[in-house]
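Task: encode each sequence below as structure tokens.

Item 1
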Amino acid sequence: MSTTNIEVDAELIGILRELQQPVDKTATELIVLELYRLGKISSGRAAAILHMSRVDFIQHASDLGIPYLRIAAEDLDSEIETGRSL
């Protein structure tokens, strides 16, 4: 693993310390979650980076409002119709 330094507002660091949240792990988790939300990394890769099982990561992301499946309503309707016709 490599490291880099980033500037973080002192107030934010203070809040994280009050909440007993380590700054480095919190930053890593938020970056990974955002990359996953944007579709830039897979759930498996995100889970590996965070040292979690894939199922645990998917559940964690879901708990935070990041859906596992990203499909438009009309595409879902089309998929359902296709499935019914088989």
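Item 2
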Amino acid sequence: MCVSRPLRYLNQVMRLNFIRDSQLRRFNRLLGYNLPKEMDMLKSLLEATRSPVVFCHNDCQEGNILLLKGQQSSDRQQLMLIDFEYSSYNYRGFDIGNHFCEWMYDYSCEEFPYFKVNAQAYPSKAQQLHFIESYLRDADRGFDSLSEEEQMKLKEEMHVEVNRFSLASHFFWGLWSIIQARLSTIKFGYMEYAQARFDAYFQQKKMWAV
């Protein structure tokens, strides 16, 4: 996680004020989590987690992934990423952890708050390891020459990496959504979304924070 942006977002959040009762109640509840202390804990956890810096999309969710035409029945389906608004050099774990988080969210809802959450849709360990193996095989040409034990060791290490960084994804988008609740004119339940992301953060923190 590029620390400067979440820290800037946190500073903005701590200076916000809301007038509407419904938003104010949710905002006060979120502030009750002691977000600065959580930020410090998360920063320490990620500093202890090895993750290479690579070029990242940073918003790899369903609306930004296209299946190329004519690939629907292909054995090797090809995907294309679009919308690089948030792309930058970042930690690999954040980009993949963020993608796994997005499995839980459906943004196609036509009624308020215009999203749905299904925590059970977060990828299983088997699904994550399948994704990670495909990533490593494509990113490292020497991966196939490793023994099964060496491959599994790399996959297990990366599994821990991306799930720790998934906490950063929830934290980052939670802060972002609080700010959007104050500034954006788009019809979306930003404060509700912020609550959903921090709910997921604290749930996953039980498993991945040490």
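Check on item 2: Residues 40 and 197 are 18 Å apart (CA to CA). DSSP finds seven helices and six strands in the chain.
End of task.
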